[in-house]
Specification:
The protein is mainly β and about 260 residues long. It is built from four helices and 20 strands. Bound molecules: magnesium ion.
């Protein structure tokens, strides 16, 4: 299934994408699909971030080539069996084609293209081999980062979590294999990140097992799985795209 979330008559609703048509639903598609009997052309939809996040759990340092480029920020205790977790809150969510704006005190605003996972069921202490049964689908996410703030603060809450710093979408799909997805980030059309989720140090199933050993994930919660090498700055006027094969292109505008 392919899902989208959209604004319809001023309210957020979910829909199922069939071809270029969106069949709208009466409630989030976590357990059962309740169609409202209407459909809209995808091109006319005002798309939203396809989640119902109470939290966005992010994985830091999950591709070796990104660890290499960020070596100044990686301490000697980094252990692939214990992924680095941090949180974004729902205020950071942003929409496909949405604008990203950093406060004036931010000196360097970076893109980080990532595969995102949206949960279908409440998950706690989930074994790795059952983890993908708890997933509603996969989508693109840009883990926008105020890099200078992240470095100067000594922890990541402020630099990672400003309003609009988590664009995600456009489509959420369960029709892909999460550990074999090509990921490309483009800045003004030029490829700046190109990798494959095969290269994730900790794969999606293991990530879910690791997170849910510590905290409950709710239906609609989001996991951002980490970014590969090539992170870099954005400035007002830039257009940034995160594309994942089989999912689509998340495009945002820096203002
Ligand atoms: Mg990241």
């Amino acid at each position: 299934m392919k899902y989208v979330k959209l604004r319809k008559d001023g309210r957020p609703v979910w829909g199922v994408l069939q071809g270029q048509e969106v069949r709208t639903l009466t409630k989030p598609p976590f357990e059962e699909l309740c169609y409202d009997g209407e459909s809209l052309p995808l091109a006319e939809c005002d798309l939203l971030a396809p989640c119902e996040a109470t939290k966005i759990v992010c994985i830091g340092k999950n591709y070796y080539d990104h660890i290499q480029e960020m070596r100044s920020m990686v301490d000697a205790s980094h252990n692939p069996e214990r992924p680095t977790l941090f949180l974004k809150a729902p205020n950071a969510l942003n929409v496909p084609e949405g604008t990203v704006h950093a406060p004036g005190f931010v000196g360097r605003l970076d893109y980080e293209g990532e595969l995102a996972v949206v949960m279908k069921r409440r998950a706690k202490d989930v074994p790795e081999e059952e983890a993908l049964d708890y997933v509603l689908g996969y989508t693109c996410l840009n883990d926008v980062t105020a890099r200078d703030v992240q470095k100067s603060d000594g922890q990541w809450a402020r630099g990672k979590n400003m309003d609009g710093f988590a664009p995600m979408g456009p489509v959420l799909t369960d029709e892909v294999e999460p550990d074999h997805l090509e990921l490309t980030t483009r800045l003004n059309g030029a490829v700046v990140q190109h990798s494959n989720t095969e290269l994730l140090i900790t794969g999606v199933g293991k990530i879910i097992a690791f997170i849910t050993a510590s905290m409950t994930l709710e239906p609609g919660d989001v996991i951002a799985t980490g970014t590969p090498a090539g992170v870099g700055p954005m400035v007002p006027g830039d257009v940034v795209e995160v594309e994942i094969g089989g999912i689509g292109v998340l495009r945002n505008h820096i203002i």
